Amino acid sequence: MPETKIDVLGIGNAIVDIIDKVEDKFLEDNGLAKGHMALIDTDEAETLYGKMGPAIESSGGSVANSMAGIASFGGKAAFIGRVANDKLGDIFAHDIRAAGVDFQTSPATDGLPTARCFVLVTPDAERTMNTYLGASVQLGEAQLDKELIASAKITYLEGYLFDPQEAKAAFHKAAHIAASAGRKVALSLSDGFCVDRHRAEFRALIVGGVDILFANEAEICALYETEDFDKASAEVAKECELAALTRGASGARIISKDSIIEVAAYPVDKVEDTTGAGDLYAAGFLFGHSQGFALEKCGQLGALAASEIISHIGARPEADLKELAQAKGLL
Length: 331
What we know:
Number of domains: 1
Order of helices and strands: EEHEHEHEHEEEHEHEHEHHEEEHHH
Strand content: 15-25%
Largest sheet: 9 strands, mixed
Number of helices: 12
Strand order of the largest sheet: 6-5-1-9-10-11-12-13-14
Helix content: 40-55%
């Protein structure tokens, strides 16, 4: 087995989030499905941006957010994702490196501009996302650092990458490299609509090559085409070595071959923005798992990280997660 250099390597969409607080009527007027992610093209991106008020620009991307969280816990994190050689690409690269994540993917000098996600936050803190994938959809095998993948304890893959064919091929290649090196492969289902588009392929991948699965209640129910969370939990237990299923304020259920563990959510004084809650849950869980912690503690670290992220606007930690975990007696 190659020498371990990285605790967790994330491979996903490199996106800059453009975050705005809106009323529910804004969603209704623009035909946007509340609480979901929709893919939009260049013209739609320009139209939506023109309708938004003053916004916050913050580097994002689901798995990239998770890597920033792992670094905040004190873990060794790296990220592979494609940006363009433009202003938003520079913002993304600066922010993720400043967060302590190893990011060496060279910016593209041709093709589409850097991806951006319009995150619309309603008064109930729910977020509705409209994503222009731009350069991130052109991620291919050429961007994969095979030695880096082989040296990471866990390679964490973003379900959103299943949409573009070139990125999907890179996704499978990375999973094969990690498994061949005796490493763990983790997968996020990313979004219920994403599951609907790729259900059969996700099921095949989970059975054949995923060691750790992350999903929220809606996603896991979509995967098994049921509205019964307990039934979906029973199904995933048959197909996956380890699954962490989040349920918002109701906490999370961790399912392994040997046990089912319920972990409560950490309470927060006020929920400001749920953007990134699942990403940071995965960060805490994966950090703990990479350190060999018991599954319950992994879940508690995930819950702690999620509670920090929903207490403010933006999907990257503002507090030092290592210090928070130490204060709670988790580290």
